[in-house]
Amino acid sequence: MSVDSEFALPQFLWMVLIFVGVPTMISAGIISSIWRSERTRPEQSSNRSAATQPAGGGPLGLWTTGLVAFLLGLLSCVGWLSWSVDYRGEFRRPGLPAPTQFPTWQVVACGITVILACFVAAHFSRWTTAGGFAAAVGTTAGFTTAFSVAASTDATGQAGVGVVLSALGWGACLSVLMLLRGIWVNRQRD
After folding, report:
1. pLDDT tens, position by position, 61-100
2. In this structure, what are the phi and psi dihedrals at residue 117, rounded to the nearest 5 degrees?
3. Around Cβ 112, how many Cβ atoms within 10 Å?
4. DSSP letter at 45?
5. Which of 1, 10, 129, 133 could disulfide-pair with 182, CB 3.0 to 4.6 Å?
6. Interior/surface letters 144-174, b for 16+ CB within 10 angstroms, e for the rest
7. pTM (2 decimals)?
8. Which residues lie closer than 8 Å to 54 by C-beta, 6 or more apart?
9. Three-class SS state of 41
10. Cβ density class 27-48: b for 16+ within 10 Å, e for less
């Protein structure tokens, strides 16, 4: 059986629309709700204008935070998973189709890079909680988009399952980490 491994743009666009675009738009609605509650949260100051000021320390708004996180998530995936070193130490250059087997250290390094990328984007957000979630969604969307490039070369459809699991796993993991970060930052401030 011959399997075609050429990049399929229509397959890539459908994967990104369904597995990145739709969940990102749903998440944007949830983040907007979190942002409204964070924006109107009474601070310890009696000054009303201070109560509506951003709670984070960074210069980035929510959309910019999500975009920066998207780029960092995309670069994390491309940077670590577009090449490979096999068990004999032979190097495989970046290219399509992407490698399917990686040494453990490379996967762990990719995971650490994705998590750090999310924390960096969240750190530069103006909003503590909503900015953290925007960073989580953006990082997940960026990683999943890059992963979809490799999945669109798969004629079997099994890589699509990997895209779904990637989106769910990174989305859940990074959201929990950003929730814990938001709680910790808010406690440190009080």
Report:
1. 899 999 999 999 999 999 998 888 776 777 777 766 677 7
2. -60, -40
3. 12
4. -
5. 129
6. bbbbbbbbbbbeeeebbebbeebbeebbebb
7. 0.84
8. 126, 127
9. coil
10. bbeebeebbeebeeeeeeeeee
Q: One-letter amino acid identity for 12?
A: F
pLDDT, tens digit, for every residue of 121-172?
999 999 999 999 999 999 999 999 998 887 777 777 787 788 899 999 999 9
Alpha-carbon gap, residue 122 to 57, rounded angstroms: 10
Q: Quick one: DSSP state of residue 8?
A: -
Q: Which residue type occupies 83?
A: W
> At how many degrees (to 10) do helices 104-123 and 129-151 cross?
140
Beta-bridge partner residues of 92: 84
**How far, in Å, CA of 112 to CA of 80, rounded?**
11
Q: Is 85 exposed, middle or buried (0-12, 13-18, 19+ CB in 10 A)?
A: middle
For the chain, counts of helices (H) and of strands (E): 7, 2
Amino acid at 148: S
- Token look-up 């959201």 returns 175
